[in-house]
Amino acid sequence: MRTRAAVLIVVSAALLTACGSSGSSPAGDARQNAAKWYASGGDVKISALASATHSVLSGIDAMDSGGYSQIGLTNLTTRCVVLADKVRDAQAYAPFPEEKTQYSWSAALGQLDQGASACRDAVTARGDVRVAVRASESTLTSGLTNLKAVLEAVGTPTASPAP
């Protein structure tokens, strides 16, 4: 009887140890899932989005007060279209594995898409192109801010979506 009780205690202790110390915690799992999302292509998506966004923003900055762009309006339109394509590609990628950061990811994609569309439409519209294009600038900047939040969630060494 004593032997049976001792075996039962040892087995119970082993089961409790195995169940209770899997080496992971919810926070650890979330970090691991975020790192996996990032390493499986999230890094490429974020980099492409940041690069295309910075390209559009530099094109906007190259405009003078009359709406003339040193890079040309056709080139700026192309940059806006490229950004919209990068957004569509990122939208097809897997959602972020954690709800709060998924919100930032979705917000970034929405803002960058809206900014790219507004920029493209402004360049092809009649009227004060510079004012219309500048209006898309704040939306694009907000998108970059949300990309930064995603980078911070995955724990990248430099949490900045710089090109």
- Based on the structure, what is the oligomeric state of the protein chains? single chain
Overall residue-averaged pLDDT value: 79
Describe the sheet with the most strands. Answer: none
Count of strand segments: 0
- Provide the succession of SSEs: HHHHH
Helices, by number, come to 5
**Total domains:** 1
Q: How widely separated are the two ends? A: 71 Å
How much beta, percentage-wise?
under 5%
Catalogue the unreliable spans. 1-23
Helix content: over 70%
Q: Which structural category fits the helices and strands?
A: mainly alpha
Q: Which shape, going by the Cα principal axes? A: elongated
Radius of gyration: 24 Å
What does this structure look like?
With 163 residues, the protein is mainly alpha-helical. It has one domain (42-163). 77% of the residues lie in helices and 0% in strands. The protein has five helices and no strands. It has helices at 2-20, 26-61, 73-91, 99-124, 129-154. The termini are far apart.
Quick structural overview:
The chain is mainly alpha-helical and 163 residues long. It is built from 5 helices and no strands. The N terminus is likely disordered.
